Input
Amino acid sequence: MDVIDHYDLLIEEQNDPLRDLPVLQEYMSKWDGVPFLEALELSKDKSVLEIGIGTGRIAVKVAPCCLKMTGIDISPKTIERAKDNLKEYGNISFVCSDFNSHEFDETFDVIYSSLTMMHFENKAAVITKIVNLLKDNGIFCLSIDKNQSEYIDMGTRKIKVYPDTLDNITSLIGATSMSIVKTIEIDNAHIIVSRK
Ligand SMILES: C[S@@+](CC[C@H](N)C(=O)[O-])C[C@H]1O[C@@H](n2cnc3c(N)ncnc32)[C@H](O)[C@@H]1O
Output
């Protein structure tokens, strides 16, 4: 099954991490959580891009701490849910599009992504695009899943993914005009913090 159908179906199945019980929300923080949010170095004068905003699980914590943010997601039903979940924040622009092909008309102080990189087959192209969207001195913060399965297996459907490794992503970032500031290992992910 393709990625768009999978995430659209998750919404139909009432699967929305932002509406989960607190105990499940705490579980999701094993992929990012406080270390990830702190690494963004947010402030009220910064513009932010989230790649794969989902239903807004992380954006709900980012939007109040920045000037403005853009969230892009390829799944129409997911982005509609994000708009509803985050309607109290007037500083978020929602884009329903494939990050690979979308043409942005601005650059950003901070770009971040969690639990999404495994959906991209051509990681080098994604990282090059991110560098070009980042302002000088801007921060790119990426969480990559430790899970090395090549499929998300939902029992009734399987979705092909392209697992990431710390070595591969750090070497791709190292080949750009970004420098790696630090990597942080957390329960289920590696967080890679880079600066342009
Ligand atoms: C596992 S979810 C993570 C959502 C959110 N980052 C979070 O951690 O709660 C992955 C998200 O990436 C989106 N996505 C996958 N491929 C994409 C692409 N090519 N362009 C934009 N979004 C994409 C999916 O629709 C989905 O909402």
Q: What stands out?
A: The pocket of S-adenosylmethionine is lined by residues 3, 7, 17, 52, 54, 57-58, 72-75, 78, 98-100, 114-116, 119 (CB under 6 Å). The chain has one domain: 3-195.
